[in-house]
Amino acid sequence: MIILVLNSGSSSIKYQLFDMGERKVLASGLLEQIGEPTSRLAHRTCIGRDTMEEFASAEPVADHDEGFQKIVATFEATGPIRDAGELTGIGHRVVHGGAEFQEPTLIDDQVIARIREQSALAPLHNPANLAGIEVALARSPDIPQVAVFDTAFHQTIPPHAYSYALPQEVCAEHQIRRYGFHGTSHIYVAKEAATYLHRPVESLNLISLHLGNGASVTAIEGGRSVDTSMGMSPLEGLIMGTRCGDIDPTIVFYLARKTGWSNDRIESLLNKESGLEGMCGSNDMREVERLAESGDAQARLAIDAYCYRIRKYIGMYTAVLGGVDALLFTAGIGENSFTIRAGCCQGLEPLGVTLDTGRNESPGTGVREIQSEESAVKVLVVPTNEELEIAEETLVCINAGTPVGE
Ligand code: ADP
To answer: Which residues are annotated as catalytic?
Structure first.
């Protein structure tokens, strides 16, 4: 059972090929700068357990169609599969499924049309995801293909948590509500934590902190998302690499009036020039930490604000859940930065959260505990694997045999 996972961006295709019997990566890669003369492919074939064979190419790739063919040709040339026909299925990451898609869904022409309808909600992401789906389906029509949505896991959030306090007829007409994102990561780490704790996920209350370039926090009750910090778009919530997270919406109108900047200019400011980048000039947390340690006051402020925002959400979601079994840290920052983990848990003793400094600062792999002996709440570092989750959901959907989510 071999599953290809594709994550198509506007000018890139990221991919991983899995042998699902062993939950093992056979190959992975990234094709970038599609449509530019400078396109490049970085591909890795995994040989044995820890050995990789790397392959790079720098030929121009005109579009996603050529890109898909190049990726398949690279598999065939480098060995993990000899023919695209060996694929059991292809799983496509789709950012926005709106309220339309609650589960992974087998793709056909109707599903493509329905995903396209959700594009107004995610104009930067869904059209690019669709470009990958359409070429893969055109080139490999006999291979079952599944759309796995970042929003689907959050479809269990109740109305009082997903509704914005705007005129409800306006919300209904324009599909305005909280959708939430990073769903595949939040559910993956929740299941991994449950396995680690030897408890059914249905019996656990979890707060999952996905802290990467994008960042979000989810309250998970019995394996179901009941609230999450990202909203109608990935802009709401935590401070991120370049996104501002929660702000007073008046700032947008005030800026427009004061500066004459267009909607697009301000949208770009909030999405691409804010967050850590806007506060201290770098969106790379390693650099921000280095600057703060060397005495840079803006970097120190950025870290303080970053951790403060997360502590506020942990407090809110503790109230939402009425008690928490475990806090989960994941993604680039959550898995690697003990400084940020410590900052996020600082002063949370009244909520039953106390870290063990030695455990927190010890490097490690796999799921690990970092709370102190007296902490009522477990604090776990859980490496995420969104591609594996997409591959598993793809296989389940294919095995179920009929289109789900309709
Ligand atoms: P995404 O997948 O959203 O692009 P990642 O999950 O890879 O992002 O996370 C990227 C972030 O993780 C960057 O801010 C990077 O600086 C941070 N990061 C990675 N390793 C470390 C580390 N050792 N210490 C602090 N931050 C780290």
So the answer is: 150
Residue 84: its pLDDT value, please? 84
E strand or H helix at 30: strand 24-32
Pocket of ligand 1 (CB under 6 A): 212-214, 241, 284-286, 289, 331-333, 336-337
Q: Would you state the pLDDT for residue 8?
A: 93
- From ligand 1's centre to the CA of 105, what distance in Å? 30
Q: Which residues of the chain have pLDDT under 70?
A: 49, 402-406
Residue found by looking up tokens 């949370």 in the block: 348
Mutate to test the pocket of ligand 1, among 280, 286, 360, 389 (most ligand atoms within 8 A of CB): 286
135: left (phi over 0), alpha (psi -120 to 50) or beta: alpha
**Model pLDDT for residues 245-269, shown as the tens digit of each residue:** 999 999 999 999 999 999 999 999 9
The atom number, within ligand 1, closest to the CA of 214 reads: 3
Strand, helix or coil for residue 145: strand
- 149 φ, ψ (degrees, to nearest 5): -100, 135
In this prediction the pTM is 0.94
Distance CA 74, CA 26 (A): 13
Report the pLDDT value the prediction gives residue 49, as an integer from 0 to 100: 67
Alpha carbon of 403 to ligand 1 centroid (Å): 36
